[in-house]
Amino acid sequence: MIVAMTLIDTIHFTDYSTEISFSEPYCENNYENRLFVTDSRIRSLNRPFDDFCSRIPDGRCLTLPSGEEVKNADSLFRILDAAFNLKLDRSGEMIAFGGGVLTDLTGLAASLFKRGCSVVFYPTTLLAMIDASVGGKTGIDYRGLKNMIGTFYPAREVRIDLNFLKTLPENEYRSGLGEAIKTAMLGDRELFDILLRESDAVAAREEGVLREIVSRCVKVKARFVREDFREKGIRAYLNWGHTFAHAFEAVCGLGSLTHGEAVVWGIDKGLKAADLIGRGNAAYAEAFEELVNKYGFAVETPVPDFEGFCEALSQDKKKNGGDLLFVLQSGPCETFRAPLSIEILRKTVPALHV
Ligand SMILES: NC(=O)c1ccc[n+]([C@@H]2O[C@H](COP(=O)([O-])OP(=O)(O)OC[C@H]3O[C@@H](n4cnc5c(N)ncnc54)[C@H](O)[C@@H]3O)[C@@H](O)[C@H]2O)c1
Questions:
Q1: Phi, psi (rounded to 5 degrees) for 146
Q2: Which atom of ligand 1 is nearest the CA belonging to 167?
Q3: Could you count the other beta carbons within 10 Å of the beta carbon of residue 100?
Q4: pLDDT tens, residue by residue, 223-258
Q5: pLDDT of 64-102, one tens digit each?
Q6: Which atom of ligand 1 is nearest to the CA of 138?
Q7: CB contact set of 312 (below 8 Å; sequence gap of 6+)
Q8: Could you report the per-residue pLDDT of 159-171, keeping only the tens digit for each?
Q9: The CATH number of 172-353 is which of 3.20.20.70, 2.60.130.10, 1.20.1090.10, 3.40.50.960?
Q10: Does the pLDDT value for residue 271 go beyond 90?
Q11: Which residues line ligand 1 (CB under 6 A)?
């Protein structure tokens, strides 16, 4: 818990300026005992960042391919090998510039290298800024299952440079917005209103509103993590919308909606289910619908077949053990967990084949 506190207290917002934002954090030019890790897509889309990487001495900047497929044991060992080759010692540091894939992967490598060296994150996607870089969960995918191998190991520091969001592709940005909506519903009513009111500024990625979104989301996540670092209780509320979303992704294929969009789809189902079990809140559901319409999230998309969807849900149950409890809400910041019957699920989830 104390570790999580340390993490939250050391989050910085660097100045927003293309000229200095990449050089400022490393103006000391100190590469000694440090390994930098990033991915090729960020470098190819972001010229100032690519220039920054090019100045890092040989062997100290490992550039991996991009995408979820990279989150595997091979990449993990590429990072560990690079650290060995550089003779990083235990007081050494790994520095990840990237989205959630890179921060999860580098966090895991840092937690294993010589039983744990320091790690610093520069999250470069909205999702990584508000979610993946905060809270200390690291991991790789294994045997086709997400995050099957991992540790709890918070970064020493998370440095958020909003400049990175300038080059983030639109679908990745929307994915982060989906998680921001989830976070607002869980713990910040004012953020929910800001997202409703400021949708134009959000769409235009204006710095002021981005700063507000990121700092508020980080604070909400920090609250949950501080109370329940190892997810024995209320940290599981952060999975609001996710049980439905994971099953949707399993049957529709990853990529038919981005992860954040699937989460918004899942939240819509969660609100409907809460209503069907007599714990809904009509005004709240209407406000959510307004938000969804403003941002154009697709919540009506049907799953191909209902049986397949239930099968995917049961995989989630196997993974977590015991009964499948859905995170649900009966109002803003009023979150609870409950099982759902097959009849309720049938009424909640639109399917092409029932
Ligand atoms: N540890 C946690 O608590 C936690 C929480 C949520 C998600 N995650 C993990 O995060 C991962 C998803 O993270 P993500 O959505 O950031 O995806 P990602 O890391 O795959 O990044 C998305 C894409 O955007 C590109 N990109 C990143 N930053 C860019 C930039 N500034 N400009 C241009 N392109 C850029 C990347 O190369 C990649 O192609 C998943 O593996 C998930 O399991 C972890």
A1: -70, 135
A2: 32
A3: 25
A4: 888 787 788 888 899 999 999 999 999 998 766 789
A5: 999 999 999 999 999 999 999 999 998 999 999 999 999
A6: 1
A7: 246, 247, 250, 251
A8: 888 889 999 999 9
A9: 1.20.1090.10
A10: yes
A11: 39, 41-42, 45-46, 66-68, 71, 98-102, 104, 124-125, 127-128, 131-132, 135, 137, 146-147, 164, 167-169, 172, 175
Cα separation, 202 vs 272, whole angstroms = 27
Tokens representing 69 are 């497929």
Yes or no: say if 95 and 36 are a contact pair by the CB < 8 Å rule.
yes
CA 124–ligand 1 middle distance (angstroms) = 8
CATH of 2-168, one of 3.40.50.1970, 3.40.50.410, 3.40.50.720, 1.10.150.120: 3.40.50.1970
| Residue nearest atom 4 in ligand 1 by C-alpha distance | 132
Report the separation in Å between the CA atom of 190 and the middle of ligand 1, taken as the mean of its atom positions: 26
Mean pLDDT of the chain: 88
Instruction: Take atom 3 of ligand 1 and give the residue whose Cα is closest.
Output: 132
Residue 342 Cα to ligand 1 middle (Å):
34
User: Residue 141 is encoded by which pair of tokens?
Assistant: 């995918």
% residues pLDDT > 70 (the chain): 89
Q: Give me the pLDDT at residue 339, please.
A: 95
**Ligand 1 centre and the CA of 170: distance in Å?**
13
pLDDT score recorded for residue 314: 87
Cα torsion angle, 86, 87, 92, 94, sign = positive
The domain spans of the chain are 2-168, 172-353
Q: What is the pTM of this model?
A: 0.92
The preferred substitution site among 41, 44, 221 for testing ligand 1, maximizing ligand atoms within 8 Å of CB, is 41
Dihedral (C-alpha) 60, 106, 50, 167: value to the nearest 10 degrees? -170
Active site residues: 115, 137, 179, 221, 231, 235, 239, 242, 246, 259
